[in-house]
Amino acid sequence: MGGGHGDYIPLKPDQLKSLEKKAKETMKGGERGEKKNVFISFDSDDLTDVNMLRAQAKNKASNLEFNDWSVKEPFNSKNAEYIRRGIRERIRQSSVTVVYLSNKTANSEWVNWEISESHAQGKGVVAMYKGDKPPAQLPPALKKLGIKPVPWNHEAIVKAIDKVTK
């Protein structure tokens, strides 16, 4: 004989609605829900900082959780269209693009293209910076889209990612 022979306690309508709401939020990836698929756009000179961000996302104690779909190894090609196709596919597999801003980012044609491509694919874009304030120069695509950078702190990043993926 199977289990489930405990006492049946009927729920009040407001308790049932509350349980339904919690279940829906969890299934949608809300409170403690699934990780987001993130493409990280950055200048190659910033790889050390970006690897720290990746490590924080793997830390179980962190509330910053995501599946990293960004390019970890540069494409072994000088053919720009081949590289774009590979990056385009990574962005397609993601739900949001996080742009790591530094003093070099504004001049990166690739970062600017990745922001524009993410937007063209309907993906949310979040820009983040390390330190007290964002770099003076931002990638033109960020300015064009009116995206305001957030500081590198877990709460701000999680809130910004949640805002653009809902």
Please give a structural write-up:
- The chain is of the alpha/beta class and 166 residues long.
- It has a single domain (36-165), classed as 3-Layer(aba) Sandwich (Rossmann fold), CATH 3.40.50.
- Helix content is 43%, strand content 14%.
- It contains six helices and five strands.
- It has helices spanning 13-28, 47-58, 80-92, 109-120, 140-145, 154-165; strands at 36-41, 66-68, 96-101, 124-129, 150-151.
- It has a five-stranded parallel beta sheet, with helices on both faces.
- Strand 3 (96-101), helix 4 (109-120) and strand 4 (124-129) form a beta-alpha-beta unit.
- The radius of gyration is 20 Å and the shape is globular.
- The termini are far apart.
- Mean pLDDT is 80; it is low at 26-32.
Low-confidence stretches: 26-32
For the termini, the CA-CA separation is 44 Å
Q: Kindly identify the CATH topology.
A: Rossmann fold
- Enumerate the strands of the largest sheet in spatial order, edge to edge or round the barrel: 2-1-3-4-5
Mean pLDDT: 80
- Give the overall silhouette: globular
Report the structural category.
alpha/beta
The total domain count is 1
CATH-derived architecture = 3-Layer(aba) Sandwich
Number of strands: 5
Number of helices: 6
Residue share in helix: 40-55%
- Radius of gyration (CA) equals 20 Å
